[in-house]
Amino acid sequence: MLSHDILITSGDFADAGMVRTSVSNHRFVWYATGTERPAGRINLLHTLPASMEIYDQLQQVRKGQSVTISGWEIQDIQLIENGRTITTWKDLGCNSLLVDSVVIEP
After folding, report:
1. 29 strand-pairing partners
2. Burial (0-12, 13-18, 19+ Cβ within 10 Å), 25
3. How far apart are CA 53 and CA 41, in angstroms?
4. Are 10 and 40 contacting, i.e. CB atoms less than 8 angstroms apart?
5. What DSSP state is assigned to residue 39?
6. Which residue, 96, 40, 104, is CA-closest to 72?
7. Which residue among 44, 49, 82, 105 has the highest number of C-beta atoms inside a 10 angstrom radius?
8. Which long-range contacts (CB under 8 A, 24 or more apart) does 90-94 make?
9. What is the dihedral angle through the alpha carbons of 89, 94, 100, 105, rounded to the nearest 10 degrees?
10. Alpha-carbon dihedral 81, 84, 86, 90, rounded to 10 degrees
11. What is the residue-level pLDDT of the chain in tens, covering all 106 positions?
């Protein structure tokens, strides 16, 4: 249901020489190569594309690109079958997003 994990960084977090990052199993870790806390922001997007067109656009996003991804924040997703909840996805501090726009900057 969630198609992509996309790590969005700015400031020092976007400088691979200052901060190392990795994403695995819907979680991210980072560590600074220096002794000071990095400035900037780091957010992990769990994306749910609003359409196949948006899914195809998300497929084009590559590491190091500048992108603008817009949509609606999702707090909770429930799969309900015959009136019963089968499974639930609850955001735990990242950003789950119903994506309705993807712009890859030149």
Report:
1. 22
2. exposed
3. 28
4. yes
5. P
6. 96
7. 49
8. 91/46, 94/26, 94/28, 94/43, 94/44, 94/45, 94/46
9. -150
10. 110
11. 678 889 999 999 999 999 999 988 888 999 999 899 999 999 998 888 999 999 999 999 998 889 999 999 888 888 899 999 998 877 777 788 899 999 998 8
Q: How far is CA 80 from CA 1, 83, 96, in A?
A: 14, 6, 19
Integer Cα distance of 85 and 47 in angstroms: 21
Does pTM top 0.70 for this prediction?
yes
| CA distance to 1, 11, 31, 36, per residue, from 49 (Å) | 9, 27, 30, 37
* Structure-block tokens of residue 26: 């819907």
- Asked if residue 75 lies in contact with residue 91, where contact means CB atoms within 8 angstroms, the answer is yes
pLDDT computed for residue 1 by the predictor: 64
